[in-house]
Design goal:
Layout: H1 9-25, H2 34-47, E1 50-53, E2 58-61, E3 66-68, H3 71-86
Antiparallel strand pairs: 1-2, 2-3
Helix pairs in contact: 2-3
Length: about 90
């Protein structure tokens, strides 16, 4: 064993396997186009997850309190928020 290596091979292998398992469990980032983004925002509005703030021309993500002026930014944020809240 190289003196600079302090972790045995089997531990390093196990850590790599755990990291790969975590990567497989995380949702893939999928490219979302404008029409699909709008559909997702419409669904989130219907579910009460998002609320419009007309005076500021933004949509507020209710669970986090964050505001967005872009449908796509909101959709990507919500996907990440969902993934983070599942862990």
């Amino acid at each position: 064993m190289d003196p600079t290596e302090t972790v045995p091979d089997y531990e390093r292998f196990e850590r790599e396997q755990i990291a790969q398992d975590r990567d497989r469990q995380r949702p893939d980032t999928v490219e979302i186009d404008e029409p699909r983004g709008r559909d997702v925002v419409t669904r989130l509005l219907a579910e009460g997850v998002v609320e419009p703030i007309p005076e500021q021309e933004v949509l507020q993500h209710i669970p986090s309190g964050k505001c967005f002026d872009s449908d796509l930014a909101l959709v990507y944020f919500h996907k990440g928020w969902e993934a983070g809240s599942e862990e």
